[in-house]
Amino acid sequence: MMKKVIVVVITLSLIVSYTILPIDASAKTISQFEAEVNKYTSELEAKKNKVAKNDKEVAQIKQKIKNIQAQIAQAEADIRRLQKEIDESNRKIKEKTAESKKIIEYYQISNGENVYLEYAFGAKSITDMVYRMSVVEQLTEYNDNIMKELDRLIKSNEQKQKSLGSKKEELKKLTKDLNSEKEKINADTAALKAAMPGLEEQIKAAKQQIRDLRNMGCGRNESVQSCTSRYYARMVPSSSSGAHSGGGGGGYTPSANGFARPMQYGYITQGYRGMAHMGVDLSSSNKTIPIYPIAVGQVSAKYYDAYGALVLKVRHNVGGRIIYSTYAHLSSWSVSVGQTVSLNTQIGRMGNTGYSTGPHLHLELTTCDWKSAGGGCTWAQYQHSTINPATYVSLPSSWTTR
Questions:
Q1: CA dist., res. 105 & res. 111, Å (int)
Q2: Strand stretches in 249-335, DSSP E
C-alpha cells in the first residue's frame, strides 16, 4: 500500500512512527502473544504520555512566539517613534543653525569678541554706553544658548540614530528566533498529526486481538496460527470450493487452489517489494472497475485507514490454513463484515481514496491480520506476515480476463 512518508523531526525520540513497532514477530503461543502485546501496549501508553508532555511544550513555545510577536510590535513602534524624534531634531537643528547665522550676520560680529567692544565703546554718552553694553551682553548670551542647544540636538540625534540601529538589530534577531520557533512547531505538529492516529489505533487493535483470542477459546500454550486456523476453518469455505458459483464475475479460470484476479482486466502499476511495498498495485482503463475477491472467503473487516482510504479485508481458508487478502483505495463497498463471498461477488469498486497518486487497487496477502476480529497479530507482525500475491494469483503485466 502506498504509505505516506513521515518526516523525521526533533521529537523522534518521543514519537514512534505508526509503521515501526517494538513487537517480537516470532511470538508463537497465545501466552507469548499476550505478553508481547501487554508489553507493547504499555510502551505505547508511555509514549502517549511523552507525546502529551510534548504537547505542553509546544503550547509553551506558542506562548513564547506570542510574546516575541508582542516584542516585535513594540520594537517597530519604538522605531517609528524614534524616527519621528530624529526628524524633528533635524528640523530644529536646521532652524537653530539658520537663526544663529542670521544673528551673527546681522550684527556683523563674526570676526571675534573685539567687534562687541567696538560696538560698546562707540557710545556717545554714558546712557548710550550702558544700553550698548546691555545689548552686547544679551546678544552674547543668546548666541551662546543657541550654540549650546544646537550642540545638544546634534548629540541627541546621534544617540537616537544609534538607538535606532540597535532596535533594528534587535528586531532582526527576534524575527530570526521567531522563524526558528515556528519551524520547530510546524515540524512537531506534523509529527504529532501523523503519529497519533496510528498509536491510538494500534493500542486499541492490539488489546482487541487478545480479547478475541480468549473468546475464541485459544489455549494459552497453543500457537496463534494454529488456533485461528482451527477456529475459522470451520466457518470459512475452502478456496478450492465454490469457485464457479454465482454470476457476474465470469470469464476467469481459477488456479488449482481456487484463486483468480481481483478485476476483469487491468495491469500492474507497482509490484510486491516486501516491507518496502507490502502488496501489488493494480489499475485498469476503467477507473471504477468492479473488484472481486481473489478467492472465496468471509469479509473480516472494512474501514477507513488513517489517510481516508476505503479498505476491505477477506479471510480465506486455504487447505485448512487461514490467510487474509486486503483491498485498499476502493471508491465504494458492496459487502458487509461477516458476509461469505465467492469469486463472483462484487465487493466494491476501484478508486482513489486515501493517500493515492491515482485510481488503483492495492492488494495485500498476509498470514494474519491486525484489524480483523481474531486476526491474530499486531501491526508489526502483520508487516512481517505478507505474502507476494503472485504466489497464489497469476498476475502478468496486463490481462484481459480474470
A1: 10
A2: 266-270, 279-283, 290-291, 297-304, 310-318, 321-330, 332-333
What is the full DSSP assignment across 246-273?
SSSS-S----TTS---SSSSEEEEE---
C-alpha cell at 48: 502517549
CB 55 within 8 A of CB 182: no
Give the CA angle between residues 368, 372, 377 to the nearest 5°.
40
Q: What is the pLDDT of residue 74?
A: 78
* Cα 193 from Cα 185, distance rounded (Å): 12
Contact (CB, 8 A) for 329 and 351:
yes
pTM, rounded to two decimals: 0.60
- Please give the Cα distance from 343 to 296 (Å, whole number): 6
Set out the domains of the chain in order of their start, with CATH numbers.
60-194 (1.10.287), 237-399 (2.70.70.10)
Higher pLDDT, 235 or 345: 345
d(C-alpha 32, C-alpha 97), whole Å: 95
**Separation in Å, CA 61 to CA 51, 54, 128, 186, 353:** 15, 10, 80, 11, 35
The DSSP code sequence of 326-383 is EEEEESEE---TT-EE-TT---EE-B--SS-SSSBEEEEEESSBSSSTT-B--HHHHH
DSSP 8-state secondary structure symbol assigned to residue 17: -
- What the block records as the C-alpha cell of 194 is 501523523
Q: How far from chain centre, in Å, is Cα 116?
A: 82
SS3 per-residue string spanning 87-112: HHHHHHHHHHHHHHHHHHHHHCCCCC
What pLDDT does 61 receive?
73
Residue 16 confidence class, pLDDT cut points 50, 70, 90? very low
The burial of 40, by beta-carbon neighbours within 10 Å (0-12 exposed, 13-18 middle, 19 or more buried), is given as: buried
Relative orientation angle of helices 126-215 and 114-121, to the nearest 10 degrees: 140
Residue 41: how many CA atoms within 13 Å on its side-chain side?
17
For residue 29, the model assigns a pLDDT of 85
| Grid cell of 12 as nine digits | 523522534
Q: At 387, is the secondary structure helix, strand, or coil?
A: strand
Tens-place pLDDT, residues 134-168 = 666 666 666 667 667 766 766 776 777 777 677 77
